[in-house]
Specification:
Blueprint lengths: L1 H10 L9 E8 L14 E5 L13 H13 L3 H9 L3 H6 L3 H17 L3 H13 L11 H16 L3 E7 L4 E4 L6 E2 L2 E5 L2 E8 L6 E7 L4 E4 L6 H13 L7 H11 L3 E6 L2 E6 L2 E7 L3 H11 L12 H22 L11
Parallel strand pairs: 1-2, 1-10, 3-9
Antiparallel strand pairs: 3-6, 4-5, 4-7, 7-8, 10-11, 11-12
Length: 343
Amino acid sequence: MAIVALLATLAACAPMPKHPIAVAVIVEGERDSALPEASVAGLALHPISLAPEPAATNDGAAAALAKARSAYATGNHDACRTEIAKLDVPQLLAAGNRAAAARALALDTACAYQGLAQDDAVRAAARLAAFALDLPADAVAREAEELIIAAIGKASAAARARLQVTGELGARVAVDGNPAMCVVPCPLDLAPGDHVIAVEADAFEPAWKLVRVPDVATVAMAQQKATAVRASSQWRARIGRGLPATDDTGATLLALAAREPRIAYLHAGRGTLIVDGKLRASGSDTDAPRLMRELAYDGGLLQRPKVWQRPWFWIAVTGITAVAAGAVIYVTYEPEIQTMVTF
């Protein structure tokens, strides 16, 4: 029995890594589910939080348009055009702000026309029409409105030209600030003129280009890997749309957002282990340390103990040994017989 106990003590120790393996832990939900650093032998757990949503930025369009409108109303057409020149119309369209882009180009048309720069007015009206923008409700001179309406009619009647959009497979493609209409690879039939092609894809930064059709037949949209802030925002947006937090795309986004090679994501009694942006293991258990240990075993971070390295195995062996020893003693025991002879 002493030998069995000694063997149990020596063998019931699962092999541990030479140094604790660092794992970043994201816990959502109950805060008491947080894991202390040394709660799982062989792992060095450290909690992290994803970057917060970026604050909304002001593109300055509203202020510039207000100043341009005021200058137009007072007949200061040069000042009006100076304010409009401060606006990057393609950038407004890339951000989906079609209303501001339409107001800017309509005002530019009106200010140029009444400032006796008729060629510039025609070009501004043509840009508005090529982007398929609507004539804004803001009042402008009748002559400027007629220029814009004529340009819209001309663009509507013009033959379309094919533009092939390439880039990251599956990236969502938007044209001239409209909602995304297709995914890469995407063939588009567009009116002649300038167009803003914008793409968005999970795990990548958005990108856009200004292209002239039909001069350009193919546009390649290069996208950079998403920053931690962008990846965090995209990951939250996916959850908001009801998509899984840790499917293949979710795992990639979490890795980019956390900038950690190993991440454990725990939520509502369920957990997933992500290694190098790939889902390695998943499971469920209301006991957070036990869940984390199982994820580490299933994900290959820790070596799962062999059967003979587990305490219950040696408890069973000890019990069986004790029972067997008792049986042997019972069967083989021969009590000493003493015979007494009396007369």
